[in-house]
Amino acid sequence: MRVRDIDKEKLVVTNAIALIAQDGFQGFSMNKLAKACNISVATLYIYYKDKDDLIKKIGAEIAIEFFTSTIENFSPDMSFEEGLWIQWQNRAAFTFKYPKKVAFFEVIKQSPHAEDILNSTTKFSDFRIIMKQFITNALQNKEIIEMQFEIFWSIAYGPLYTLLNFHNEGKSLGGKPFKLTQEMIKEAFQASIRALKP
């Protein structure tokens, strides 16, 4: 039985993230990954049962890393504006630091594995509980107006993710060069807060 090589495993993860972020879920294969890593396909099966196992395991690792960073220095008992701002800062910082991981996760969220990944550990349900409590507190304190969750999410987080996408692509609408600044984030955040307040 061949032993696991930690450095090689890290290389596999790094290349899998890059390939899926670039080519999408459908364009990814174990053969492409082996070639990118300059290893045999058989070596990949030391670490993962198959392509689906690889995607689920890497997806779960990134999701945990992202959700953990999102709630750093955050408490659901904070005022809505303070708590949301910390989340914006954390989400932006993670995206700036790990753009390929974020691009990978965006692809995986649209894949057949999304639900399996999000149900793979209690850490995700813990995150959902924290977020639900945060929103419930804000509603009870009349800090935000009541609306359908999808509408709330699009107003509370959509502007940030649009700006981060422009930043990662290096251009905005019409191909205009774009680089996201802290001032832009703050301006978009204030607009979101105004739209959510009673």
Order of helices and strands: HHHHHHHHHHH
Shape: globular
* Percentage of β-strand residues: under 5%
Q: What is the helix content?
A: over 70%
Structural class: mainly alpha
Termini separation: 63 Å
- Largest sheet report: none
Radius of gyration (Å): 19 Å
Structure summarized in a few sentences:
The protein has 198 residues and is mainly α. Helix content is 71%, strand content 0%.
Primary descriptors:
single chain, 71% helix, mainly alpha, 198 residues, globular
Describe, in plain words, how this protein is organized in 3D:
Helices cover 71% and strands 0% of the residues. It has eleven helices and no strands. The longest helix is centred in the first third of the chain and has 20 residues, at 51-70.
